Amino acid sequence: MRPSSPPEPPPAPARVLAVGGSDPSGGAGIQADLKTLTALGVFGATAVTAITVQNTCGVTEVMPIPASVVGAQMDAVLDDIGADVIKTGMLHNIDVVRAVAARVGRAALVVDPVILASDGRELLSRDGVRALLEELVPRAALVTPNVPEAEHLTGVPIQDLEGAGRAAERLLALGAAAVLVKGGHLPGSEEEVTDLLRTVDGEEYRFSGPRIVTRAGHGTGCTLASAIAAGVAEGLTLRDAVQRGRDYLVAALRRAPILGRGSGPLWHPNADPEGAGGEPSGDPRAQ
Known about the structure:
Elements: E1 15-22, H1 29-39, E2 43-55, E3 58-64, H2 67-78, E4 85-88, H3 94-101, E5 108-111, H4 126-136, E6 142-143, H5 147-154, H6 161-173, E7 178-181, E8 192-199, E9 204-210, E10 216-218, H7 220-233, H8 238-254, E11 264-265, E12 281-284
Parallel strand pairs: 1-2, 1-4, 4-5, 5-6, 10-11
Antiparallel strand pairs: 2-3, 7-8, 8-9, 9-12
């Protein structure tokens, strides 16, 4: 009896390399990145920039990984498996920022500028912020700051969507291809949240949806940026990648169990965007 021929391997999946800190509680950082990417059917790899001590109540300690080791991790992935998108989170210091910038290559870059913890703890040094603006933002296909991060990066006060647009323009002027300013911190966003996407081509899209009332919220920024990175890796338009990413985040928030004493983690298994409900509108606003 002849042995059967091996089955044809499935097509290679889209690939995202997530570069960021490790969260032992599993809610944020590279743990959230990998959960999101896996749930969306994208292959996720990681390069760890820092070991954090944190949980749902906050960050208490950060141990940075040497930039040479971060770079070596990235090289190990890029030289073997490769990446369609590199997504960055917590980079901690200037040396790590530069190590990442030196390795972006032809991969699309999604920059989630993690600068401060919720309690005000510094997660990216001041010279690291300058290097991010000078060396990563100009290479970015997308930058995804929340309102405090956008204010910190640009010096533009943001009280409304017009202010968010002005901050986005500052980052576009530095060379970013697109900027998504997340509106969860805007005044008046208690019931509805609107995120503003602006591109270097002058396009603007506003994505609005009801605020999800939940105690969960740990890792929302990581989750959204990784979900968008997954869409970019799969070849979606940026508008569609943002739309699906927001839908995924809504689903993960709606399904979040009560875990921990503080801002709890999201729930990624079966976080199907089709079942999210309250889909945000992505209507273009011409500029």
